[in-house]
Amino acid sequence: MPFRYTLLQRLCSCEEVAVASANQTFVIIPRSAPTKADASRRVANFDEIYADFPLADGKVQSSRCAQCGVPFCQSACPLENNIPDWLRLAAEGRAEEAWRQSEATSTMPEICGRICPQDRLCEGSCTLEQSGWETVTIGSVERWLGDMAFEKGWVDPIRPRAEKGQSVGIVGAGPAGLAAADRLRSAGYAVTIYDRHDRAGGLLTYGIPGFKLEKHVVGRRVDRLADGGVEFRLGVDVGGDLPFVEVRAAHDAVLVATGVYQARRLTAPGCGSDGVVAALDYLIASNRKGFGDAVPAYDDGALNAAGKRVVVIGGGDTAMDCVRTAVRQGATAVTCLYRRDRENMPGSARETANAEEEGVVFEWLASPRAVLGGASGVTGVRAQRMALAAQGADGRWSVEALPGGEFDLPADLVIEALGFEAEDMPTLFETPDLALTDWRTIRTAGHTKATTLEGVFAAGDIVRGASLVVWAVRDGQDAAAEIDAWLSSQRRAAA
């Protein structure tokens, strides 16, 4: 008996193994991902690097699901998607029904299918992966179903059964705000979304590069909301152009879903030099250029890696977006500097592998000590070799410097991808009664989305800190349900 089969027996009863062997195909069909563009070709453009499954391949890969009695993939998904159900339906050729199951728990399945770190979530928790059979390609099937739904017209327009006569203002057009708007408008509320950018989508539009998420995929979700009656007020800076008190006065409830955009910056000597830029500034410039916008800072080279030696400092998904963008812009060399090792890198292992295929060099266990050059430009980064020291209660390892481990990396452009923090929301909104946590994110009551301001709720990164898009979607959907319940109670009290 194969070793992997023996492992599966330990996880399932004998009867379950027999059923799985007869009805699921993981024992005879290997895992196969969709076609991926060759690295030498894909670095020439910003197109998505993965294709959708052909119909036959999508059905076959879906059929590999073992239909576990306790689906660890579902419990590992922040949205608690009904993954085994829609995999079974897809395997049976019932693609539209599979899509309906998928969209029942997620307002953006085709987006999450593209950008979720499935290797750390659903696919990493798959029973087949744990037992040595290789995981089901959950994310790729989710994307495939979502794209098929738009192509075949299965995505229903938003048409509320009845109007509630109450309105909700949402500050922030990122994933949390869009997800909340979808659910609230569907329930019959008038919804207005305010955003400081000229396009909706937040980081989906201006942060994540096109090779991971092409912009028409975000655009069709935004168009569906607009067609369904959601009003977008773009280019409006709430707290700047428009006082927050006016937003509250205009609506029966308000959701703050601004995300966190204040970049953490280097404190090493030389970090204020020209040629040291924040990751989000760099990515926004690149995405705007992709839209065809005039971007002076890109055209003059300040936010353009073409012909430059680039060093990106950081180890998360934003750092991976930066290194892969720099390659496509024509950098002569791209290096990622990260103070821990590969196993302790917070970014997706899939994105790290893609970056390596595209020519990015990783300097593991290396921390910046100084930026070399002068005020008018950089010539390199002085770094220090590190070693893992001790594992903390959160599972993360601390690091310590290795004696004599300094080395220099040549660089013309240094990109800081060190994460994001919240803006000072009480000051920005002129609401001193808006309570914050010790991390300056908005404090909510218990496990709710209610803030310390009556009728004001908060969701997404502005509450939990910089996190995953899928968590923002979950928070937005949960916030919508809570706002609906609160407004319903207000209607009953007024009746």
UniProtKB/TrEMBL annotation:
UniProt cross-references to Gene3D superfamilies, sorted A to Z: Alpha-helical ferredoxin (1.10.1060.10), FAD/NAD(P)-binding domain (3.50.50.60), NAD(P)-binding Rossmann-like Domain (3.40.50.720)
Sequence ranges assigned to domain Dihydroprymidine dehydrogenase in this UniProt record: 42-153
Keywords: 4Fe-4S, Iron, Iron-sulfur, Metal-binding, Oxidoreductase
Domain FAD/NAD(P)-binding stretches: 168-476
SUPFAM superfamilies in the cross-refs: alpha-helical ferredoxin, Nucleotide-binding domain
InterPro entries: DPD_II, FAD/NAD-bd_sf, FAD/NAD-binding_dom, GltD-like, Helical_ferredxn
Official protein name in the record: NAD(P)-dependent oxidoreductase
